[in-house]
Amino acid sequence: MRPFSRCLGRQTSLEGIASRAKTPKVSQSKPQLKKSSSGESPKLPVQPQGTKHLAMSAESNYQSWTKNGLIQKVKELEAELRNRPAPEPKPVPEIQPENEEGDEAKKTKPKGKRKMDPSKYSTRFIALKLAYLGKNYGGFEFQAMANAPSIEEELWNALTKACLIFPEDERIVDFDCCEYSKCGRTDKGVSAFGQVIGLRVRSNRPLPKEQRRLSEAGEAMVVDEKLGENAEEEPVEDTPPFDDIKDELQYPRLLNRVLPPDIRILAWCPSPPPDFSARFSCRERQYRYFFTQPAFTPEPSARGARNGWLDIEAMREAAKRYEGEHDFRNFCKIDPGKQITNFVRTIYEAEIEEVKDVSSALPYVSGSTYVPAGGLPSDGTVYPKVYSFNVRGSAFLWHQIRHMVAVLFLAGQKLEAPDVVTTLLDVKANPCKPNYVMADEVPLVLWDCIFPGTDSTPVDPAAKKTDGLDWVYLADDPALSKPGPFGVMDGMWAYWRERKLDELLSNQLLQMVSTQRSKDPSRHVTRPEPSGKQANSVVVYEGGNGGRMGGRYVPLLQKVKLQSPEEQNERYAIRKGYTSSEDMRNQKGIGKRKADEAMDE
């Protein structure tokens, strides 16, 4: 176990500098210091000249500050302005007696958060499994000056508030002090139920060296006293063994008490494998993309609804074509700044699955004017249904899942044939991606991240895997998982019920509006079926709450083509002042491990 002392540096606050600058000097005498037991005189900390200037210049860059840190800084500056002394010189106050001055200091000493000394605590490297609903966040990764908070910013605030990490300045988001790594960088609006991070945190395990020093010092004191009394020495009790789980800090509980209700720590791993990296050690990532059937409210027609319903079987056929090792350059967004050259990824499994027991009945969509032209099965099925696109793979490109889902929706709406997937995967015949819109981000969930265990036995990469990390789940301790004032399920139930009530009320309102109609038949208006351009206009579904009016549909292979990845990389490198894309990769040291295995969904 290692202490946090290496991560710390001396820091002088702006408020402290201002207070010392305003305090008049009453004596130039040096304080008398007592010698230590070793005979050495302790040294006073000396602040070199120019420290104030250095501190100010170091704090002048606010790009990586948290919002709470910026607000605190503004309050400090406002307080400094209010307390700034008047320009007229003030007389030197009289020197008060020592006892009175001490009493006054005790009365006026401001109360603040007591800071922990990190050198007194051991640390340990752990892994955390967390879940979050990403709709209200700007993504997982912290971005300076972002409009919406990030998941990492909330994690940083919770870790520093719980004193699990000790950065030099907790207002500045910088995970370098704790050996931090993350499995996936989910984008804005994307959720995760199995995100994993690795980091070094404060531990409850006593420091062995510190224990020995305190034990020796206490033993010497006891011996000296008892020898003076001609007493015998008493043996020192051995330190009881430390249990890595039962005696350790309850990390999920500590963090869940300070995290927002839509971010929860589900489990922690006490002993990750050596050289563990949440990003590079992960051998499988699982995603799910949820959608309804019908996808959006169908348009009534005497010939059957023309929009809204999806062909699930066509989507299943198209999804199976993703499986295997393919070049997915036509199913992702290119970031020339990373200069990625390898777009080959392996998909272990891709399927469309019905999600059971989550449907909310809306009987009107099963009416004769709303059902698709082929009708619906007469088996009493309740609509709308809920489905999910489940995909397993080792790694994914930027926005790869959302591009894959967008093409599946086109196949489900019969705007494209299922074999269009195979056509786009043929990068020799189609080296440039058609300019199509990717699917909405909110229904996407990073479902789970699978890591290898200590067993070195080779396994089939395509086989379904179980996580090899030894997770300690909240359910292992009923007090932390079951309903109760401190149980995570109690808070999650309240969060779910609030949104379930919103769904219930909107469901009842929609059903009521769908059945409202005048009893007088003469008031019923019958409109002619659309014809011409209006009949050829389609509503394209992209995963959101409704369809997008697209006019006449242009097939994928006839859309405008974007530049190839090689052309985009070359153009970006030259614009940045490099001679070529290869020159940029060489000078910046962009290797295969850093760029080509990026996980950016």
UniProtKB/TrEMBL annotation:
Span list, region Disordered: 1-62, 76-118, 513-542, 564-601
Record's protein name: Pseudouridine synthase I TruA alpha/beta domain-containing protein
InterPro entries registered for this protein in UniProt: PsdUridine_synth_cat_dom_sf, PsdUridine_synth_TruA, PsdUridine_synth_TruA_a/b_dom, PsdUridine_synth_TruA_C, Pus3-like, TruA/RsuA/RluB/E/F_N
Cellular component annotations (GO), alphabetically ordered: cytoplasm; nucleus
rRNA processing as UniProt keyword: no
Transmembrane segments: none
One function term, GO molecular function aspect: RNA binding
